[in-house]
Design goal:
about 180 residues; mainly beta; Jelly Rolls; nine-stranded mixed sheet; two-stranded antiparallel sheet
Length: about 180
């Protein structure tokens, strides 16, 4: 099933898109990938976008690195962010999210709007979580959409397993990027 959000056809074809992005990084046989390009392919970041999207106030493009503390503001567009082997997620048009963790577990704090994600199955822990106020939606091998409507949280689960509960208080979980 191919789904489209704001012109990005992303969640049904994320694996092929990741392969394509990895191939694009190494296309130039003469020059080879730069250190920056290789790091983005390995650690993840913005892999596709539709319209203007800001990361920490600067216009994002394909290959923009994502790290802890970044604010993704997609008022005028939508953006596909990938963490290889973990998750591919779209911050939908009209949304704002902050990267809380970018390591074994990717955690996004959703200020408003919606995030749709395709999460790889990880046996040892959760691969992706969305914090909405005091609520955490944690995903395990899942395709889901989490939206914030005022103080309400809406979870649309297409496939897999999610856990919904209180978000850890700041400082409860310490993990570097």
């Amino acid at each position: 099933m191919e789904r489209s959000q704001g012109g990005i056809h992303c969640l049904a074809c994320t694996r092929s898109r990741r392969r394509r992005v990895a191939r694009e990084v190494s296309v130039d046989k003469w020059r080879g990938p730069t250190v920056h390009e290789a790091r983005i392919a390995a650690q993840g970041g913005v892999t596709d976008l539709d319209g203007e999207v800001l990361v920490d106030g600067a216009t994002a493009g394909r290959g923009t690195a994502v790290r802890v503390g970044n604010v993704i503001d997609s008022q005028a567009g939508s953006v596909l962010v990938s963490r290889p082997g973990k998750v591919d997620f779209v911050v939908e048009r009209g949304s704002r999210a902050r990267i809380v963790r970018w390591a074994e577990t990717v955690v996004v704090a959703l200020d408003y709007g919606a995030v749709e994600a395709n999460v790889e199955h990880v046996y040892s822990s959760e691969a992706f979580a969305v914090d909405v106020g005091s609520t955490r939606v944690a995903a395990h091998g899942t395709h889901l959409r989490v939206s914030r409507l005022g103080d309400d949280v809406v979870v649309d689960l297409t496939d897999g397993i999610v856990s919904v509960g209180p978000a850890p208080r700041e400082g409860d979980v310490a993990e570097s990027s």
